[in-house]
Amino acid sequence: MRLINRLRGVFATPVPFEEVLTEDGFLLWPAMAEGSPERVRLADGEKVISNVHRPTLRYYPAGKPTGAAVIIAPGGSHRELWIDHEGHKPAQWLSERGIAAFVLKYRLGAEAGSPYSVEPHALADILRGVRYVRSRAAEWGIDASRVGVMGFSAGGELAALAAMRYDAPPLMVGDVIDRQPSKPDFQVLVYPSYPDRFVVTKQSPPAFICGGYQDCADITSECAKLFVRFKEKGVPAELHLYAHVGHGFGFRADNKGSIAEWPQRLYDWLADSGLLRR
To answer: Residue 12 has what pLDDT?
Structure first.
């Protein structure tokens, strides 16, 4: 009881939060030390980032706002972030269609020598991102009841974890941002890692699931089983498995054929779900 009263006191008088906008976006956590510099390498002409110590949200405002918003978690096996075709490019595409998008740069739990873990650190980062967006929703023209998460590969796992663990957010600091709800209103899981571990309940947010037939069976077949679990719990879900593609297709300029149209299927699902009311 003493601990509960102490926590109530923290949230009754939230600690100050000073907004910090860096060149990579809004700093998610107050007073977070710089740490050693991030590492950036190029792969196929795209940036791949590692050694993240200061999680950020890069904001892409909606051109003609629908009120919906998405926090995007790039993949990279929790060792690095493929932040272009699984981050900035989908964010730009969504923003051009009226959906506010936020690219999440999160801490990496599987990187060699990392002091972090997926739970609690990366999970804390994405849930903090959800709360951060809701704390600014009125200012940014966002409906706080239409804030979702989207992730690719390891980022898809992180998005699913956010949809599962929202009721006990880790690493909260008790400021005004932490007064906001952490539960995503929808989840977009693109070739997510370890879908066999995802728990679906009747309270789970609606889901859009997408992957490739040529991906490993641990992802492709388990995504199909995941869809069935949503169906069994009565939670709306949509599944797309494309026959002629494997892992990592994301938002690449050289995607050809039906896989090039998967973003439109996502947009259609958002619209059909009533999430794009202007």
So the answer is: 57
The CA angle 189-43-46, to the nearest 5 degrees, is: 65
Comparing CA positions, the residue from 53, 115, 120, 113 lying closest to residue 81 is 53
* pLDDT tens track for 214-268: 999 999 999 999 999 999 999 999 999 999 999 999 999 899 999 999 999 999 9
Beta-sheet strands, E only, within the chain: 21-22, 25-27, 39-43, 46-50, 56-60, 69-73, 81-82, 100-105, 147-152, 187-190, 207-212, 237-242
- Residue 26 phi, psi dihedral angles, 5° rounding: -75, 130
> 2-272: which CATH number, 3.50.50.60, 1.25.40.20, 3.40.640.10, 3.40.50.1820?
3.40.50.1820
Where are the domains positioned within the chain? Answer: 2-272
Q: pLDDT tens digits, residue range 153-209?
A: 999 999 999 999 999 999 999 999 999 999 999 999 999 999 999 999 999 999 999
